[in-house]
């Protein structure tokens, strides 16, 4: 049983409320008779008053004494009656006032609020809600009723009901001082708790919808911040290792950015692009990584993604170079510099050229290495490439020269590490024609030379310790020895060989070779005589050792002369520029002219020969006929460290 006045739960058998002191029976009786009291008390009071007004005179008449004492007696009795009437009137008036108090809305509101609080304390939430509802039916401005009702709904996880009751409270109770602030604060808390509940249950979308609605409804930044946090939490869920889904995470972050504009969402969005791009980089899927970063940069405007694009281009280029595709690597660096504006990418090109050249060197392709370095110097103007090129050129030595006529090999020349020719073969239509092989000692002196004619062994010449010819053995078509020749040497005062005399099987095989030197000991001429001492041919030399003229004789008569001119290349080699052959009457019989193109080493890359006769000769030799075009291919050995 509860007190009808203050709502306190009463002790069993109590006559008065231990809280407010109200008599239990009176309150309970009033409570039981409240419907009748509201109507009956006023009318009953009037009736009683009327009866009292009529009864008193009649009684007075009946009791009037016929003598003076009776008058006195009458007067005393009337006073008693008057007192009774007065008491009745007082009681009647008190009954009316009491009835009015216990039936007023203020009393009912207070009673319901106390009862609601009592039920709440005893966890009788449905009863508490009913009392709050009754109170609000009587007074819609009760801020406390709205707040406590919302609390109960939240405890029961009926969040929408809590939001609805608070929204109604903000509408109805806003006139009260401080009500708007209290109700709004409670509304914000409910939105937060509801969102947390849905997040804990994995209903991120519902939490976001609720928080966005709350932010719009209340204008509170706290809800907007909490909304951003929910978007971040859901996105991070899809960015975790066990549930990785970059596409889904980015969808969430984009929605969050649109809804909140929160910068943290933008940073995580950019980070998601970078993280997925890094995965593609680890898989060497450079194109996919680049596409992601471009998309991310366009979507977020994040500068780090632009920088990431430059990194992808760089790694892609180095990957291509590691695969030996250097042209692609260089192209990627150019493309990357243009796409990102990152000039540092072009600064990586010298490194690509260096690696390319090193690979060529390791493969023995030194010509290719030089070509790569020359290209790199031209493109980048990098001083380090120039140093590499110069160092390589200074430490290269000819190993082999192969001459082509465009299809067939025409000639092959091989060199030892001392720069001596060890083999020199000529070919006709791809088959061995003429040639020789030479062996040298450690000092670079000739020891042996083997000659071939038409692909067959022709002659073997041996030399003494000074490199002078010692003997020759000639072979026939069957490989049998046909005859021998031996030499005897005569020296001049300077100790140089002046005469070489070849003696064969008979006197007709004897040949004498005379060598003449200038004052510096340089060979200037060689004359060849027959067995009868007749002059057969004369060879004149330039100081650089090149033949300047060849003259053939018949006795003392000149039969023919050929004069030679040369071109010196950057590598210090001499190449024939022209040859003019004169008859005995010193008229031009035949002439040749040679044009050359050069490689990066300064060696001849191609040789084109022209020929003509007296009829079309002029000093420029520009009207000749094409004779042949040879293409030179060089192989080098690296002599550096």
Sum up the structure in keywords.
641 residues; 49% helix; alpha+beta; 18-stranded antiparallel β-barrel; 17 helices
Could you describe the 3D structure shown?
- With 641 residues, the chain is α+β, with helices and mostly antiparallel strands.
- It has 17 helices and 18 strands.
- The chain has helices spanning 24-63, 68-102, 105-121, 125-138, 143-155, 159-172, 179-200, 204-218, 221-239, 246-260, 263-282, 286-300, 303-322, 326-340, 349-362, 366-380, 383-394; strands at 396-404, 409-415, 421-428, 431-440, 446-453, 456-463, 469-475, 481-491, 497-503, 511-517, 523-529, 535-541, 547-554, 557-568, 574-582, 588-598, 604-612, 625-638.
- It has an 18-stranded antiparallel barrel.
- The longest helix is centred in the N-terminal third of the chain and has 40 residues, at 24-63.
- The relative contact order is 0.03.
Contiguous low-pLDDT stretches (5 residues minimum) are 25-75, 95-99
Euclidean distance between termini CA atoms:
111 Å
Largest sheet: 18 strands, antiparallel, barrel
Helical content band: 40-55%
E-strand count: 18
Number of helical elements: 17
Note the beta-strand portion. Answer: 15-25%
Round the Cα radius of gyration to an integer and report it: 63 Å
